[in-house]
């Protein structure tokens, strides 16, 4: 029997099995041992969004034999100390970060770390300010001022009153989009609102802790009826950065990148140097003090930052 090979895109990755769409065919695969070895620095050598080659053996069992080079990805530090990284998804047209200011509250540092990673790995990103019907207007306006001032689109979103849903549809149309955020911010509910035909579980907020219960166990790509695809991810508690040089970190804060050319020294670290335009902008309030604090914390973080 001649062995059969197909090329396709990974739609779901569970760690042991991978679902790959190859044209009209959807197949279930394992990965070849050498791929595991090649990805030994990562918890997951094959990820959702990867373009892969699959091969069937004489028994009809499929194996992923090769992975095409990734054009981009979103990555974070792995929780497992024996590994270095965990790639959330690859080959993305956009990322949408869902944030809530209460019920539950998304930590600002989490937001900033996610945005830095998207900037570093060249993934366009917008912010969805979720559950807008439950948030205080003053708090939402303050949040928008900070992140729109930094250069990001912020969409006020409510699946209850429909606010922002049409704009999200526009952002998703014809693109492969990563949808991410802490547990309980409403990712699965949003996907089901965008495309009611999708069978995605939704969860509730724990009353005792105000935190979301996990509803998504593994990252999964869902084709959308209106075109494009959305990758729904497990809720992420923390976001440890990886492989970003301290000297380059400020490049991934757009407001600092715009301001830094006015610094007295070309190699300014924006921490203590005289004539630092970034520090002066923080003093004057044109760069948000909270965002600058996130920058300093990332610079000083321990190498063993855990999620």
Set out the fold topology.
Blueprint: E1 4-13, E2 18-22, E3 25-31, H1 33-38, E4 51-56, E5 62-67, E6 73-77, E7 85-90, E8 94-99, H2 108-120, E9 125-129, H3 137-150, E10 154-156, H4 165-172, E11 176-180, H5 187-194, E12 220-223, E13 229-232, H6 254-259, H7 277-284, H8 289-300
Parallel strand pairs: 3-5, 8-9, 8-11, 9-10, 11-13
Antiparallel strand pairs: 1-2, 1-4, 2-3, 4-5, 6-7, 12-13
Helix pairs in contact: 2-8
Name the overall outline.
globular
Distance between the termini: 48 Å
Find the CATH topology of the largest domain: Rossmann fold
User: Uncertain spans, ≥5 residues at pLDDT below 50?
Assistant: 202-216, 302-307
Q: In DSSP terms, counting alpha (H) and pi (I) runs of 4 or more, how many helices? A: 8
Structural class: alpha/beta
Instruction: Report on the biggest sheet.
Output: 6 strands, mixed
Number of strands: 13
CATH architecture label name of the largest domain: 3-Layer(aba) Sandwich
What portion of residues belong to β-strands? 15-25%
Q: What integer is the average pLDDT?
A: 86
- CATH homologous superfamily placement of the largest domain: P-loop containing nucleotide triphosphate hydrolases
The percentage helix is 10-25%
CATH class placement of the largest domain: Alpha Beta
Neighbour order of strands in the largest sheet:
10-9-8-11-13-12
The rounded Rg comes to 21 Å
Order of helices and strands: EEEHEEEEEHEHEHEHEEHHH
What is the total number of structural domains? 3
């Amino acid at each position: 029997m001649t062995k059969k090979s197909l090329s396709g895109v990974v739609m779901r990755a569970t760690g042991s099995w991978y679902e790959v769409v190859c044209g009209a065919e959807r197949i279930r695969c394992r990965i070849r041992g050498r791929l595991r070895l090649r990805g030994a620095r990562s918890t997951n050598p094959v990820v959702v969004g990867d373009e892969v080659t699959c091969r069937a053996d004489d028994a009809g069992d499929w194996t992923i034999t090769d992975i095409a080079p990734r054009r981009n990805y979103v990555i974070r530090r792995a929780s497992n100390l024996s590994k270095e990284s965990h790639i959330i998804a690859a080959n993305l047209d956009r990322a949408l970060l869902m944030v809530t200011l209460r019920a539950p509250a998304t930590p600002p540092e989490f937001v900033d770390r996610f945005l830095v990673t998207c900037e570093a790995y060249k993934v366009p990103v917008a912010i969805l300010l979720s559950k807008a019907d439950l948030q205080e207007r003053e708090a939402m306006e303050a949040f928008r001022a900070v992140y729109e001032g930094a250069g990001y689109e912020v969409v006020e979103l409510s699946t209850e009153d429909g606010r922002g849903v049409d704009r999200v549809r526009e952002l998703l149309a014809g693109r492969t989009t990563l949808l991410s955020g802490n547990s309980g911010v409403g990712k699965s509910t949003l996907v089901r609102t965008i495309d009611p035909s999708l069978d995605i579980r939704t969860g509730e907020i724990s009353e005792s802790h105000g935190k979301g219960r996990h509803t998504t166990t593994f990252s999964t790509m869902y084709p959308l009826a209106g075109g494009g695809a959305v990758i729904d991810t497990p809720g992420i508690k923390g976001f440890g950065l990886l492989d970003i040089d301290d000297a380059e970190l400020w490049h991934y804060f757009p407001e600092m990148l715009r301001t830094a050319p006015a610094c007295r020294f070309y190699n300014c670290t924006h921490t203590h140097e005289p004539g630092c335009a970034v520090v002066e902008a923080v003093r004057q309030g044109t760069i948000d003090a909270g965002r600058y604090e996130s920058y300093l914390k990332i610079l000083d973080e321990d190498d063993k930052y855990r999620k």
